[in-house]
Amino acid sequence: MVNHLSNKSLFITSLLLNSVFCTFLVPVSSTLQRFHHHTNNNGSLRFLVIGDWGRKGWYNQSQVAVQMGIIADRLNIDFVVSTGDNFYNDGLTGVQDPAFDESFKYVYAAPSLQKQWYTVLGNHDYRGDVEAQLDPMLRKRDSRWRCLRSFIVNTDIAELFFVDTTPFVEMYFDDPKDHKYDWRGILPREVYLANLLKDLRSALSESKAKWKIVVGHHGIRTTGHHCDTPELVTHLLPVLEEHHVDFYMNGHDHCLEHVSCQNSKIRFLTSGAGSKAWLEANKPQDEKCGVKFFHHGQGFMSMKLTKNNARFVFYDVFGKPLHRWRTSLKKLHTSM
Ligand SMILES: *[C@@H]1O[C@H](CO)[C@@H](O)[C@H](O)[C@H]1NC(C)=O
Ligand SMILES: *[C@@H]1O[C@H](CO)[C@@H](O)[C@H](O)[C@H]1NC(C)=O
């Protein structure tokens, strides 16, 4: 009885809070920040994707970085995408944290990697001072750094939608174990997520880009050690399906992986092998999904897009291409 009453009053309080916050939050957060990125290469877009990396060079992070430099030079990349978990174990302590130099600036030092880095946050980043990673001060320390919670990068032929996936995961709120998460700017969570999905839906529906790519930290379909993220399967995947997204790219699982599912046109690409790796894989949870490629050691991915064709390659710690895949816009949209 007591329990019941307190639940009820909690519910009413949260309703009141929600309505108060909604009034203020909805109008200001209804559009995602947009960046336009002109491509270097005559109508083709080229970039690298790396995730789960910041360990001060350890666990082969430096070796991967050297190979990224070589491939980036060969491809003349436009930018780098980071799928999050930028700084281990617990994000940054503040804007002056030396880990920013030790795990980012000095590690990815190749001239070919001196391009814009578009970065999302991972769950480990949320265990530190999240606002430090979002702070424009960091761009003074290294102008490559561009990290926001959710945002859009518009290029001439592709649009990339970066989505803050950590707040979707219930476990971090309900059962955080010994970890402390920095939820400033996220609460009340239901409002934050509803706004994010609404903004993403409207941005995707307005997009005229040939290629639509969504980037998040957590996997939707993956056989890596973390498995599918059920909250994203329920809430994010239907939005991506509805708006004909071509690729979903994530980290979180410390591996390289290419998954495709019979009932989906989306290619699920995991690039989370920037440093510590070698964890065992699971079986696909959805029997309609199949693994085209899986590597549980370190490495990274490159993506090259032209108006009609996409080509992605996964490389290992030695820069050796392990898996190449080519597809055309037409094929992807008729392969159902
Ligand atoms: C750019 O594209 C045009 C037309 O396809 C081609 O003739 C030219 O060689 C390309 N330039 C470079 C630098 O790739
Ligand atoms: C670094 O890469 C090499 C080659 O794949 C591997 O043998 C070694 O175990 C890796 N080191 C770590 C710490 O993962």
From TrEMBL:
SUPFAM superfamilies (alphabetical):
Metallo-dependent phosphatases
Q: Which GO terms describe its cellular component?
A: extracellular region
- Record CDD domains: MPP_ACP5
Q: Which top EC class applies here?
A: hydrolase
Residues that bind Fe cation 2: 85, 123, 217, 252
| Cofactor comment text | Binds 2 iron ions per subunit.
**Residue span(s) of domain Calcineurin-like phosphoesterase:** 45-255
Q: Which reaction does it catalyse?
A: a phosphate monoester + H2O = an alcohol + phosphate
Q: What is its EC number?
A: 3.1.3.2
Q: List the subcellular locations.
A: Secreted
Major location category of this protein = secreted
> Is Secreted one of the keywords UniProt gives this record?
yes
Q: Does the UniProt entry include the keyword Secreted?
A: yes
Cofactors required: Fe cation
**UniProt keywords, alphabetically:** Glycoprotein, Hydrolase, Iron, Metal-binding, Secreted, Signal, Zinc
One example GO MF annotation = metal ion binding
Residues involved in Fe cation 1 binding: 52, 85, 88, 254
The similarity comment for this entry is: Belongs to the metallophosphoesterase superfamily. Purple acid phosphatase family.
User: What is the recorded name of this protein?
Assistant: Purple acid phosphatase
Organism equals Cynara cardunculus var. scolymus (Globe artichoke)
